Every structure is written in C-alpha cells, then in structure tokens.
Amino acid sequence: MRLILASASPRRLDLLARIGVRPDEVVPADIDESVPKAELPRQHALRLAREKAQAIALKHPEALVLAADTVVAVGRRILPKVEDEATLRACMKLLSGRRHRVLTGVALAVPVQGVRERLGETMIAMKRLSDEEIAYYASHGEWRGKAGGYALQGYGEVYVRHIAGSYSNVVGLPLAETRVLLKSAGYDIA
Length: 190
Description:
The protein has 190 residues and is an alpha/beta fold. Helices cover 34% and strands 25% of the residues.
C-alpha cells in the first residue's frame, strides 16, 4: 500500500528513515493551525495531526496518509511556532529554568477504516537561561518555524538539563508510536 507523508518537515522524513520507512510521496497539508480558546495542548496536537491526515486523504483515498503535529506546552499554555526574534526571546524566557512538555500528535488515515491516532509526550527541564545565552541561541536562527522556538537536535540541546520520554518525539515524530500505527494498518515494517 502507498504511504504519503503529510508534512513539509525534513526532520520527519529523516526520522522515518531510521525505522526503514520511505514514504512514496510527501504532500504537505495546508490547514489552519490556530488554537481555539479552550483547546488543551494534547487535544490541539491530536486535532491538527488528524486534520492534516484527513485533508490529504481526501485527495488520495487509496493511500495510507501519515501526519503529525508537535506542540510545546508550559502548563495549559501552547507556545507558538516562532517566526521572529521577539517571540523567540519571550518563549525562551518562559522556558528558562522550568519544565515543559513536548506533545506530538500522530495520525494515520487508513483507506475505508478512518483515522488512527497516537500521542507522544516528553517532559523537558531547561536550565535557567541568561540574556547572553538567549542572544547566542537567537544568533543561530535554527529556531525559525520551531514550536516553542528551539531545536533539541541543534544548539538548543545545550540548554536542556533533563529529558524524560522520547527524543524523536521532541524532534517531531515519536517513532515507537508511529511504528505501532503503521503496523496496525498492515504497512510492511520490521
């Protein structure tokens, strides 16, 4: 069965390759990612993943469609995907010296059967950051487009004191959960 990855993230493609999965096609989903007022982080991550999978499955009803969405949350607050330095600095100050959660909703649209979902959750404790450390991180630019403004697989890793849970979840795709979804749909994976 054909597999379509509904994501523009090169990191998700790289992560899938680690478990021997090479999608037949990559078709990014274009959906509204705004956060409704009462939506909690877990609900938000799962809803966005589901909507991305459904949007692409409508155009490719014969294929498996895999989609994901990663959210960084401090309590009930969902941090934005950072596009400018002012937002980055605000996010880094909020994360400084605190624990936060990284949640990735994974959805797999299966022809005729509907959408199956899983949620990856990782707890991260960040060290207290000085203004100089935030400025140094900002100078690298890897934060653009990242949920919460940092990349664990890049310069952001130096600021993490503790991680509990899946590393691949923080990078953008919890591999254990993704593998279970694919196997349950009959996708050939070791």
